[in-house]
Write a structure and sequence with these properties.
Layout lengths: L5 E7 L3 H9 L1 H4 L5 E2 L7 E6 L3 E11 L3 E11 L12 E9 L2 E9 L8 H22 L7 H8 L1
Antiparallel strand pairs: 1-7, 2-3, 3-4, 4-5, 5-6, 6-7
């Protein structure tokens, strides 16, 4: 794999446990439409956004206060020639202490600039991690895609 995998990092004053709890609360920062388990090893969940994007993800590593790793089992984008971009990719959340703050480093392994979805995925991950997850950790309220938004957008 290229060393150009998508990575973004946020730092917060909250504890590693609070960061971990927010990360596994995927409905709280990504989408309220997540279906399935999102907290423990081998949990699987599905995400969808209209008919544009859907994926199935399994948690393959869960170490409280340290790390969460997802494996993308299935993926579909309606706007790419290769509808399966992301399939087989891993997405990791590494939690550590740096300069008396909790640092969360999210890496989407395999999301590289040659992907057709790279620009859109880059913008989306930045929004969901740097704004929504950050807000969930620091204020207790994220900015996920709301069920009401999803229904309005699907009409």
């Amino acid at each position: 794999m290229s060393n150009h995998n998508f990575t973004t990092t946020i730092s917060v004053d909250q504890t590693p446990q609070e960061a971990f709890d927010a990360i596994v609360n995927v409905r709280g920062w990504w989408s309220e439409e997540i279906e399935g388990g999102t907290e423990k090893i081998n949990d699987e969940f599905t995400y969808h956004y209209q008919d544009i994007h859907r994926c199935k993800i399994r948690l393959v590593e869960v170490v409280p206060e340290e790390r969460v790793v997802w494996l993308v089992l299935e993926n579909y984008f309606d706007f790419t020639k290769d509808h399966t971009e992301w399939t087989g990719d891993k997405i990791s959340f590494e939690i550590s202490i740096k300069d008396n703050k909790t640092e969360i480093k999210m890496t989407h392994w395999g999301l590289v600039p040659t992907y057709e979805c790279y620009s859109i995925c880059f913008e989306s991950w930045n929004k969901f991690i740097n704004e929504s997850l950050y807000s969930l950790i620091t204020t207790g309220k994220g900015q996920p895609i709301l069920k009401e938004e999803q229904k309005t957008l699907e009409r």
